């Protein structure tokens, strides 16, 4: 897959969520992770980050939005349930992106939203856990940018043909 991405959160407060985001970012081959105005106990992060991502994936911890420094050409994409946001399944991911999620019990700050080039939302009835949202975004990026062929139009186009039914019988060997 070409390009790179990072994933992070503004005002994350639960160490277990950060650990899960880091582990998942490591699994999806993120280039970096970050936090802005985070409030958590660092020693608890490792309870969820069982892949020990800190040895494979840089974590940038910025005290304020003004401190945030993204690589040149990196597009900031906010992930937020917002009427202005594009549904994630119809979003074309930038080649080089940093995905910013809000805190566990809240939304991206207006200042953070204003910095984002794009806002996307996961089309759910209500917000999901922060680490789950991060995983969904990374999975969608992988599926849409990872060089996978388009999915078949119907299940009968999948490898192996249609699923067997009561009337279906395997061909006889000769």
TrEMBL record:
Looking up Gene3D superfamilies in the UniProt record yields: 3.40.1280.10
> tRNA/rRNA methyltransferase SpoU type domain spans which residues?
10-139
Classification via InterPro entries:
Alpha/beta_knot_MTases (IPR029028), rRNA_Methyltransferase (IPR051259), SpoU_MeTrfase (IPR001537), tRNA_m1G_MTases_N (IPR029026)
Gene Ontology BP annotations = methylation
Q: Say yes or no: keyword Methyltransferase present.
A: yes
* Region span, Disordered: 151-174
**Alphabetically ordered keywords of this record:** Methyltransferase, Transferase
Q: Does the keyword Ligase apply?
A: no
- Which Pfam families does this entry report, sorted A to Z? SpoU_methylase
User: From the UniProt record, which GO molecular function terms apply?
Assistant: methyltransferase activity
Spans through the membrane: none
* Name this polypeptide is given: RNA methyltransferase
